[in-house]
From TrEMBL:
Family according to the record: Belongs to the GSP F family.
Primary residence: membrane
Membrane disposition: Multi-pass membrane protein
Domain Type II secretion system protein GspF: 4-126
Family matches, as PROSITE patterns: T2SP_F (PS00874)
Name used for this protein in its record: Type II secretion system protein GspF domain-containing protein
Presence of keyword Transport: yes
Pfam families tied to this protein: T2SSF
Membrane-spanning residues: 102-125
GO BP: any one term: protein secretion by the type II secretion system
GO cellular component: plasma membrane
Domain of life of the source: Bacteria
Length: 127
């Protein structure tokens, strides 16, 4: 989400897509992301559409990303589509965190109940 949001900000500031990707590649701390972003920038310089350049990276950019990027390319509102993708990914991450948080307490209670039952079966019932 962070990379997409940064890309949207750069596009809104007036940079071209390949310039934005190259700039993000230079500044990203992860070597893997640097290579990925440089590869995408290179594909764009070769004339490949951004949505098509994302196809080999489907494990990083799921089909929803590809569809939203294609929509942004067709409508000329790529920056808005990138902002929307970042917003949606952030909301999805927040929902996942809430679900994990909500499940934490019942799992702890269940684990404690299992330990009590095991302790009773092991120590109390054999007598």
């Amino acid at each position: 989400a962070e990379v997409i949001h940064q890309l949207a900000t750069l596009l809104k500031a007036g940079l071209t897509l390949s310039e934005g990707l190259a700039l993000l590649a230079e500044q990203h701390p992860s070597k893997q992301w640097q290579a990925l972003l440089q590869s995408l920038a290179h594909d764009l310089e070769q004339g490949i559409a951004f949505s098509n350049a994302l196809l080999p990276w489907s494990e990083v950019f799921p089909p929803l990303y590809q569809a939203m990027i294609r929509t942004g390319e067709l409508t000329g509102k790529l920056d808005e589509c990138c902002f929307e993708l970042a917003r949606q990914q952030k909301a999805q991450r927040q929902l996942t965190d809430k679900v994990k948080s909500a499940l934490r307490y019942p799992i702890i209670i269940l684990a404690m109940a299992i330990m009590v039952v095991v302790a009773m079966l092991h120590f109390v019932l054999p007598e």
